[in-house]
Amino acid sequence: MVLMYFIIVQPLFSGYDLYLVTPTFEGNNTKLTIFANSKPNNMIETKSPHIRFGIVGTNFITDWIIAASKQETRFELVAIYSRTQETADAYAAKHNIPHTFTSLEEMAKSPLIDAVYIASPNFLHAEQSILCMQHGKHVLCEKPLASNAKEANQMIEVARQYNVTLMEAMKPTLTPNFGVVRDNLHRVGKLRHYFSSYCQYSSRYEKYKAGIPVNAFDPSLSNGSVMDIGVYTIYPMVALFGKPAKIKALGVKLETGADVFGTVGFEYENGMNATVLYSKVSDSILPTEIQGESGNLLLDRINLIKKVTYIGGGQASMGKGMQSEPEDISAEVDRDEYYYELKHFIDLVLAGKPESDINSHQNSLITLEIMDEIRRQLGVVFPAD
Predict the structure, then answer these.
(1) What is the pTM of this model?
(2) Could you read off the pLDDT of 227-253 as tens digits, one per residue?
(3) How far apart are CA 21 and CA 35, in angstroms?
(4) How far apart are CA 121 and CA 257, in angstroms?
(5) Residues near 115 by Cβ (< 8 Å), separated by ≥ 6?
(6) What residues have CB less than 8 Å from 342, skipping those under 6 apart?
(7) Structural domains in the chain plus CATH codes
(8) Which strands, in side-by-side order, build the sheet including 29-35?
(9) CA neighbours within 13 Å on the CB side: how many for 20?
């Protein structure tokens, strides 16, 4: 008779590995045959104290993520991918990363890694995420999730097929103060208007005006104002209110074909309207506001919500404006702004959940469908389309 047993062995840092043990009996002796690394590549780790990350991208965003990861003890950075060994080595030395790869496929195949954080140019998000997921890796992908809704649908299907976690790294919606907004939304009463503005003058615009080609305004890389800046105003709207019924977009394009600023109006079937402003060629200090018949919620900055204010309404003001005293309902925040998306993603992976209930597949897909329509109305076309 041949019996088979599975045992779980926990290395010091890399989580749990599964081994197949087959005992055979020869007289009074028992022989154990151990088959190592019998764990399926797409098995969701639910008991590991650490998630071993590989990172794609060596830019300032990855620097910020790595800085935030110091506050999340379950995050273990083990590998960096870059197209050149020189860049990979320099970045590994900068952040004390033990392994480097110049082949993304080799990193995706590596048993050293459980999950991948992707911070490459927009046009590579879908291709690189799909490759990693096909090798059983969980993926945290920078915003926007993909170049368009078509690619996002493909990514979501692959995530389901390979039973891995996929989440868009849209940080504002995972912060404590966005939770405050969600918890207090009922206080504004019947919803009437959502207004959000994120305008930030790009340092790269000076180079563009000087005739120097810059990636930020190159539509072949799926770049532009709505993809890089506008998404911060649209995604929270979708997370709070869902998909609008009508969209009307205005904007301006550069000679490259990339959009540089825009104003978009939305209509919802419940009688609510929304307006978003975004720009890479001007600045704004306007807050985000949610208006209802019983009051307003004011968010200081939609890309990094530090303060949330509730102002009661619903009374005739006789031309004197809102009569209620503003109420500061902000959450106390003592963590790096990127910490919350890392924590949320790691929680999902360890719990065996394929997606977030906030930065959900559906919310990411709707956001890209909206941006697809905005680009269609403005005449912005990507090769990925």
Answers:
(1) 0.86
(2) 999 999 999 999 999 999 999 999 999
(3) 6
(4) 17
(5) 51, 52, 53, 54, 137, 138, 139, 140, 165, 345, 349
(6) 65, 68, 69, 72, 75, 140
(7) 5-35 (no CATH), 51-169 (3.40.50.720), 176-332+360-378 (3.30.360.10)
(8) 5-9, 17-26, 29-35
(9) 9
